[in-house]
Amino acid sequence: MLRDWYKAKKSREIGAQGDLHNESSNVKNYDVIVVGAGPAGASAAYFMAKEGLDVLLLERGPFPGAKSCGGTSLIAEHTHKLFPNFWEECHCERIVIQQAYWFMTEDSLLSSSFQSMKLAAAPYNHFTVKRRSLYQWLVDKANAVGVSVHLNHHVTEVIFEGTQAIGVEVSLPQKSRFFANVIILADGANSLVGERSGLIPRVSSQNLALYVKETIALSARVIEERFNLSPGYGSLIGLIGYPTAGFNGTGSIHTFKDSLNINVGMAISDFAISGIRPYELLDRIKNHPFIKTLLIGGKTIEYGGSVIPEGGYHAIPKLVHPGLIIIGDAASLVNGTHGINLAMWSGFFASQAVYESKKSRDFSVKKLSLYSTLLDESFVMQDLKANAKIASLQRDLPYLFDLYTKIANDTAYHVAKVYSMPKKAKRKFIFKKITSIQPIFKMASDIWKILKVVKG
């Protein structure tokens, strides 16, 4: 066991030829150092190396995705534009042909679902993917075009010369310094490197969500029978209401080839206020009467948690500094729960800005600001702007998901139930039931607030 632990912690360098050897020099000046080998960092490294830049990718884990768990959905069109026909080389679990939302109370479930074989045609719509497979594939692509990858290298802070970023400091056991013309921070949500270096303010607990995940093994045949799927096809199901115990938040179920991923989370500040432990949210989902039956015979093979920035557009920090760019989750470029595609595109835009800076030997804020310009012109920033008021809406209406899920389920129950009363009397009865939960003028006020946010 000790030998395995030592092997995992030992620093590793994956050179351009894919070999592993001990670090021999740390005085070289690279074109770019990328901190973090997630989707944003690996994508940035890949596109810069393709343009001929000398790139060093530093990852604190023993392998890409070491701190991640479970899986997610990948938007096919966005990924296809960066990596054409990516599904032919990246290991994807299932082609998503069913997207659904389940509005849940303790004993009820009101569903909205769409399923179509049109979604099964190339270039497809969504794929489910395991995070570690995706991260490893991206790093392998970067390595194949010449990126030097150093694993088990924990960057603690940025080195400055005046205000110009010129390198990074790596903690023990390496205790090394690496230098480059440009530093790209892609060290994930709650970027401690950016915070320690005075580049990013401490993220508020209201703007950070904690998600917990559990992967449950089931055979492909059982998954396809229980979710009414043909072999190779999958479902994405959003869970709203009961799973987050009265707080605004979301859950989800992703179907993989031979497992399911249950995912649920809410703002860290709500965990602190409520005293709810993260695993209790997972238990609420797994023990719900209409989900419990889907999991019969399943075996937990993995569980974990992750932090996601959910502050939205107004929580985005300053992204460009002299000799430095911030991308991905470190830049709070997450739209709702969608982050991977935004991360990869932010890495691509950063690569274009760095390449232009390299050509002119100008690594100033003015030159590197091409990154911000490309982001502003893209779907990444435009979608974030369109949803800019959602975070404040959820703070203004803390009961939004829970209360209106209960009202929707209560209404559906009374509509479905047969009463011994005339239909006109039944309609009045249902109206009184609904307005006893939330007065009609308050509902109208809430709907108006929601419409203003949707309108943008």
What does this structure look like?
The protein is an alpha+beta fold and 456 residues long. 37% of the residues lie in helices and 27% in strands. The chain is built from 17 helices and 19 strands. Strands 1, 2, 3, 4, 9, 10, 11, 12, 18 and 19 form a ten-stranded mixed beta sheet that branches. Strands 5, 6, 7, 8, 13, 14, 15, 16 and 17 form a nine-stranded mixed beta sheet that branches. Strand 10 and strand 11 form a beta hairpin. The radius of gyration is 24 Å and the shape is globular. The termini are far apart. Mean pLDDT is 91; it is low at 1-9 and 15-25.
Count all strands and give the number: 19
In the predicted model, the low-confidence regions spanning at least 5 consecutive residues are: 1-9, 15-25
**Please, what is the average pLDDT?**
91
Q: Percentage of helical residues?
A: 25-40%
What is the SS-derived class?
alpha+beta
Tertiary shape: globular
How much of the polypeptide forms β-strand, as a percent range? 25-35%
Report the radius of gyration as a whole number of Å.
24 Å
Q: How would you characterize the largest beta sheet?
A: 10 strands, mixed
Provide a count of the helices.
17
Distance between the termini: 55 Å
Summarize the structure.
It contains 17 helices and 19 strands.
Keyphrases for this structure?
single chain; 456 residues; alpha+beta; ten-stranded mixed β-sheet; disordered N terminus
SSE layout and pairings?
Elements: H1 2-9, E1 12-14, E2 20-21, E3 29-35, H2 39-50, E4 55-58, E5 71-75, H3 76-82, E6 94-104, E7 109-115, E8 126-130, H4 131-144, E9 148-151, E10 155-161, E11 164-170, E12 176-185, H5 192-196, E13 208-217, H6 220-226, E14 233-241, E15 249-255, E16 259-267, H7 268-274, H8 278-286, H9 289-292, E17 299-309, E18 320-321, E19 324-326, H10 340-360, H11 365-368, H12 370-377, H13 379-386, H14 390-396, H15 400-416, H16 423-437, H17 440-455
Parallel strand pairs: 3-4, 3-12, 4-9, 6-14, 12-19
Antiparallel strand pairs: 1-2, 1-9, 5-8, 6-7, 6-8, 10-11, 11-12, 13-16, 13-17, 14-15, 15-16, 18-19
